[in-house]
Write a structure and sequence with these properties.
Layout: E1 14-18, H1 22-32, E2 37-41, H2 44-51, E3 58-61, H3 70-78, E4 87-92, H4 99-106, E5 110-113, H5 118-135
Parallel strand pairs: 1-2, 1-3, 3-4, 4-5
């Protein structure tokens, strides 16, 4: 089971890590925690429930998850009007030809193959956050 409140600092962008393997989830939570306020989840359905009540700046998600997999998760995010523009980065062990294209067409913003350096994930998160700021329009 995930901590769900790993490293919360209100001055940093809030990131959700969705990963079912304890060691990988802990690694991502700790390493990204230097630059982001990170909350971790092992279950996609649980995270979708939290997303209906709480706001995150971005999500780092595995694809191969028990129950609702990463593809189903990102489709659910993209069909939710409040979440449809949220940056969702896939971090997966799937590295066959076509896997990246399948993930991007399912709705992931970016696709990284494990093992991946936390600095690479952080750089992509910052780029996503910057692009989403540039695309934001004033609230009506």
């Amino acid at each position: 089971m995930a901590n769900h409140m790993s490293n919360t600092d209100k001055t940093k962008p809030r990131i959700a890590v969705l990963e079912d393997h304890d060691d990988t989830r802990e690694f991502l939570t700790i390493t990204l925690g230097d630059e982001f306020s990170v909350e971790d989840f092992a279950d996609a359905v649980q995270l979708l429930s939290v997303l209906n009540r709480e706001k995150f700046s971005a999500i780092v998600a595995d694809i191969m998850l028990p129950g609702l997999d990463g593809y189903g998760f990102v489709r659910a995010v993209r069909t939710n009007e409040q979440l449809k523009d949220l940056c969702v980065i896939a971090v997966s062990a799937l590295a066959m030809p076509g896997d990246r294209e399948k993930a991007i067409s399912a709705g992931f913003t970016e696709y990284l193959v494990k093992p991946v350096a936390s600095t690479e994930i952080a750089a992509i998160l910052w780029r996503c956050l910057e692009q989403s700021k540039l695309g934001d329009s004033p609230a009506a």
